[in-house]
Amino acid sequence: MDSVVSSLLLKEGFKRLAKGEQTISTCSLKQLLKANLLSLSHPFVVATLDGVKDKTQFSYPEVQDIYRKIKDNVSDASTEEHLQLFRQYDRNHDGFISKEDLRLCLREDDYYEDDEMDVVIDLVMKFGDLNADGRLNYIEFLNCVKDAVM
Predict the structure, then answer these.
(1) Cα torsion at 38, 43, 47, 49 (round to 10°)?
(2) pLDDT digit string (tens) for 112-130?
(3) Cβ proximity of 82 and 145 under 8 Å
(4) Torsion sign over Cα 73, 131, 136, 150
């Protein structure tokens, strides 16, 4: 979708959902993202929304920022490999990688002994789980992958 058209649709959608107010709710934000052809089940979208889960209202500039972040990352062809890897690790397909998801994948790789595996999992979570919720969202996962490659 052309960026000018996309921007107009976002603005008009915001106006309709805001009904004269300066902000929209989380539910309205999700409706607006969906209306702009963004899949709410994409791990980057799930992670982005997880990052603002404590917020209940969003101004138009905040919505624009969220939309651009998602659009830039979801439509980037270079992230397809990372997305496939994330989905491989996200065993229960909930949009997050838990300690148990990691354990299952590492056990299949048969690279670590059980006692080493616990240490590796704890380190991944310690350094990767930035919001300390006990699981990795897609953005946290990307940071881990990026750090591992460098």
Answers:
(1) 30
(2) 888 888 898 998 999 899 9
(3) yes
(4) positive
